[in-house]
Amino acid sequence: MKAKKLVLAALMVAVMAFALCACGSSNVEGTYVVFESNGQNVDEALEQYKTQGVEMTAEQLCTITLSSDSKFTMTVMGTEMGSGTYEVSGENLKLTVGENAIDATLKDGEMSFSLNGTSMKLKKK
Question: Which of 7, 38, 48, 110 is deepest in the core (most CB within 10 A)?
């Protein structure tokens, strides 16, 4: 059940196409990989998937890649699900897709945000 909640949270983020956050100064570019959703360690969810015959890595489950031109792409379950722009002010992040924006935090190589009651944490690879 926890694995399903994790996937549902990740898909909800992807379907809304403006979830997850990024930042826009040097040292932030790169790929961030989900390691926690709603307080659950992703490894636990991946192990549950494995018992159901579905093997995947955290990188396949959910990533955000930040480029040096202040753009990002988001991948969920191995499929690119959205893209947009990002900006940073200190530890405050803003990810924008169209007219929608999400505020997040980037600190010590970890990105975190909350959207519609779902909290996500990603770590820079």
Answer: 7
Angle (CA) 82-98-106 rounded to 5° is 65
Determine the Cα–Cα distance for residues 45 and 59; give it in Å rounded to an integer: 13
* Tokens of residue 49, six digits: 């998937």
| Token pair recorded at residue 56 | 């995947």
List per-residue pLDDT tens for the chain, 125 residues long.
Answer: 555 554 434 444 443 333 333 333 458 999 999 999 889 999 998 998 899 998 999 999 889 899 999 999 989 888 998 899 999 999 998 989 899 898 999 999 999 988 778 889 999 99
Report the pLDDT value the prediction gives residue 122, as an integer from 0 to 100. Answer: 96
- What are the start-end ranges of the H helices in 17-119? 42-51, 58-61
Measured torsion, CA atoms of residues 28, 122, 104, 48, in degrees rounded to the nearest 10: 160
CA 91-92-96 angle, 5° bins: 140
Tokens of 63: 């990533």
- In 3D space, the residue among 36, 4, 16 whose CA is nearest the CA of residue 95 turns out to be 16
